[in-house]
Amino acid sequence: MNFTEESSKQSKSRNQSNIYTGQVREIEDEFVNICVEHALVLELTDIEATLLAHLLVHKKLSQEDLRMLTRLSKAVISTILKEFRERKFIQKTLLKGTHTQIYRPIIGGSEYLAQMFQEFALNIKTFSELFVFLKIRLYSKEDYSSLKGYDLLKSLIAEFDQTSPKLQLVMEKVENLYNSISSQFSSLQEVNLTFPKLQEITQKTDALQVNATSLTTGSNGFDMEGELAAIEREIVVKFVDLWKIQGRKETVSKILAYFLIRRQLTQRDISRLTGVSAGSISMLLPQFVAQGVLTKTRNPKTREHLYKVVGTLPEMCLSALESYNQQLLTFTQRIHDLYGRLQAMPKVTTQRGYTTLFNALKGFSNLLICYRGIAAQFTQIFSS
User: Fold this and answer.
1) Of residues 355, 367, 362, 370, the one with CA closest to residue 340
2) Which of 30, 42, 134, 271 has the fewest C-beta atoms lying within 10 Å of its C-beta?
3) Which of 192, 196, 194, 193 is nearest to 136 (CA)?
4) From the CA atom positions of the chain, what is the Rg in Å?
């Protein structure tokens, strides 16, 4: 047997040894499927979730191992592994005595999920800062009341005022969650999680008697003047950032943001405001109508369709946060249940890969215990 044949034989044997079998493989496959189904909450694509799940279970794999496990092409795997290294998810080393490159997760699965909880806390912070930003900017020392668009933004503040008590409760729970998780995971990046005190902000502006203005205007595509136009653009940017947690594309979030601020717009208005092509908007607007986000009427004079938004900006933001919270809870619960099944399986402890898989699922399960109680409180607050 020549060197090439011997090397190939050794490589094949090594790859097969990295592939689990029996009940351990069944649990691994189910774990991967759960990660793929909840790829959004992990901020990954389906393919990325597949690869990362296998890496979290095995702790170290080569590209060939991943190809055998996933049946993905080498080119796809190579591209994603490169992205994972850039995002500091994994590190690359050489297998001792060979030229085979081995990829290892830098942090465990439970730590990765803890980062997701941390991200959830920061998204709550972003939402609260959006409220404070709008209120402080609009009621600064400069008087904007004579500018077009002032009443629209004033109405938006009134909507946030109605939401602020609920938001304050959510922020208090988030601080508890963040502190609890941070104490368990010293490897997490430290983030300044200082929330604004909404009650103090509201008290300072109560004298202004912010009340919702009845909007009876028609199409308002260009009714923001001067500094108000800049404020509106900043609101849109913050809204787009917040809605990334629901996997919303930037174009969709931007269109929704302008509707939630302006309340009603024509297709031509929204195209000029967002820079999105008329063709793309003409496909999106009917979807929004079908979903009950917008209603559509026709102006008998211009024959243009006027689209009006159903709901408010605070409601939309809280809905995004509620959805994310529920996805986190469902994901961690399913992993916890899978861990329980693995524990209950007879004669599985001797199978190859059991210990590695057991430890990976145990970390997730422990994190669920930390999160579950607070998540239930979130749900109660959101639904009240």
Assistant:
1) 362
2) 30
3) 196
4) 26
**Nearest-angstrom CA–CA distance, 262 and 247:** 23
111-314 CATH choice from 1.10.10.10, 3.30.530.20, 3.90.850.10, 1.20.1250.20: 1.10.10.10
Reduced to 3 states (helix: H, G, I; strand: E, B; else coil), residue 102 is strand
Answer yes or no: are the C-beta atoms of 166 and 173 closer than 8 Å. Answer: no
Topology of domain 15-106 in CATH is Arc Repressor Mutant, subunit A (1.10.10)
SS3 269: helix
Q: Please state, as a whole number, how many other Cβ atoms lie within 10 Å of the Cβ of residue 349.
A: 12
Name the strand (E) or helix (H) holding 65. Answer: helix 63-70
pTM for the full predicted model: 0.67
- Print burial letters for 107-134: b (CB count within 10 Å at least 16), e (below 16): bbbbbbbbbbbbbbbbbbbbbbebbbbb
Distance, in Å, from the CA atom of 105 to the CA atom of 14, rounded to the nearest integer, reads 20
